[in-house]
Design goal:
The chain has 447 residues and is mainly beta. It is built from six helices and 21 strands. Helix 1 packs parallel to helix 5. The protein is globular, with a radius of gyration of 25 Å. It starts with a helix and ends with a strand. 34% of the residues are buried.
């Protein structure tokens, strides 16, 4: 029997665990990819996470930072060459015997924007079942190694928009914010059945514990960033921002889902077991309210710069019009039932604190840097550099991802006047495999 239904379950369970790396955000700049994901300049992660960097002038000795970066999506050409009609492709059709759930998950974790020089191998093997009236056992073979033992999940905080105006270091804006977290933990019985090939037991629950939160809204903000000491070649910069968070909607849930075996195991029907409690405030209900802020500092001295920024400090929202529903699988009617609970009560949610710390050194044709970034769910570390030789640039870097795995980046670029062409290579484990893949990113830069 091929991996079909069981494979689908394993893939879904594994999706959150592996996707936390993908959740760090896509990087469309091949320069950054070639430096191991390191962010330099006055854009990207530095300004997003350190409000002081809005006042730091561009480093004139750093060969310039691109004004616009345009990705060249060679990966899309590769993907549609391999899958010309994805709607009829058996590998992506759950109703087909050729359905490959692991390939589907790997595609979601590695969106085909970049060209995959080396694809991480997909573990495909026959699943062996031992079935009897009083016994059930499954051996997933190599696929068993992808079943996560620890809690896994995706999420973090983001600011998808922040339009505003600035005058003399003071900036007024309306920031859009989003916070999402999803976590899962396989119960001991299910983990043993899938990963360790333990036989199923009668009258036993095989479940997954899950919890999640999704909330979003707007935040009118006032911020200041400026130099308080020194000059343009050696200065100390500070920044601060205050936000009044207006929550448009939120939902928070916690529950347990799975199935319970009968007695005998296959002689009696398998019964689903699902319970979940959800607190929510829909769009149109009373808005959530809260206050919080960001702080940042940056120090520049010739070729050296240092910075530290912290976001969403004290950001706790109060929702005054919360509803609660309880979801339960009714074994009598064999149907899911939702029972309304308390209404119009008050709850609180808290945005995760995010931060960045960075250092950069630029001298002549050499640029080196490092940063530590936490976007609300796990810390990543990047170390990289660039060496320019005439019209050419050589780059390299190393990173530690949220799962504490080491990845490598390297690449180069060619620049003519205001136009640059960059290529970057990046190893990754954003896939359901114990082996690394290698991605090639390409982009055009306009200076």
């Amino acid at each position: 029997m091929r991996t079909s239904v069981v494979g689908t379950g394993v893939a879904v369970l594994t999706l959150g665990w592996a996707a936390q790396v993908a959740g760090q955000g896509l990087v469309f700049d091949a320069r950054r990819v070639g430096m191991g994901g390191l962010a330099l300049g006055r854009s990207s992660s530095l300004v997003r996470y350190n409000v002081a960097y809005r006042a730091v002038p561009a480093n004139s000795g750093r060969h310039g930072e691109p004004k616009v970066t345009i990705p060249i999506p060679l990966g899309l050409i590769q993907f549609f060459h391999d899958h010309p009609n994805i709607t009829k492709d058996p590998a992506f059709n759950p109703d087909s015997t050729g359905f490959n759930p692991i390939l589907v998950v790997n595609t979601l974790l590695n969106l085909p924007i970049y060209y995959e020089v080396k694809q991480a191998p997909t573990p495909t093997n026959d699943v062996i079942f031992g079935i009897g009236r009083d016994s059930l056992r499954a051996n997933l073979g190599a696929a068993a190694q992808i079943v996560p033992e620890d809690q896994f999940g995706i999420g973090g905080s983001s600011r998808p928009l922040d339009p505003g105006i600035g005058i003399r270091g003071v900036r007024l804006s309306v920031m859009g914010w989003l916070h999402d977290e999803v976590g899962f933990q396989l119960g001991d019985n299910l983990l043993g059945f899938l990963r360790d090939s333990q036989p199923a037991s009668a009258n036993t629950a095989y479940t997954v514990n899950g919890d999640g939160i999704l909330e979003g809204g707007l935040a009118p903000s006032i911020a200041y960033a400026g130099r308080i000491a020194g000059d343009s070649t050696m200065g100390f910069y500070v920044g601060a921002a205050a936000h009044y968070y207006l929550g448009i909607a939120y939902a928070r849930t916690s529950g347990v889902g799975g199935f319970r075996t009968g007695n005998p195991i296959l002689g009696a029907p398998v019964r689903p077991t699902i319970t979940a409690v959800t607190d929510y405030s829909k769009a149109g209900n009373a808005l959530g309210h809260g206050v919080g802020g960001d702080v940042g500092v940056a120090w520049v001295s010739g070729p050296i710069e240092l910075g530290v920024g912290v976001n969403d400090i004290g950001a706790t929202l109060t929702w005054s019009d919360t509803r609660r529903d309880t979801l339960l699988y009714d074994t009598t009617s064999n149907a899911l039932r939702t029972t309304p609970g308390p209404n119009h009560f008050t709850t609180k949610t808290k945005l995760p604190v995010s931060y960045i710390a960075n250092v950069a050194y630029s001298l002549g044709l050499t640029t080196l840097g490092a940063d530590v970034l936490n976007a609300g769910r796990g810390t990543t570390i990047h170390v990289g550099g660039e060496q320019r030789v005439g019209l050419f640039s050589l780059r390299g870097g190393v990173a530690r991802d949220q799962r504490k795995r080491i990845e490598f980046g390297w690449g180069g670029g060619l620049r003519f006047a205001a136009i640059g062409f960059d290529v970057g290579f990046w190893t990754h484990t954003n896939s359901i495999s114990n082996e690394r893949g290698i991605t090639m990113a390409t982009s055009l830069s306009i200076y």
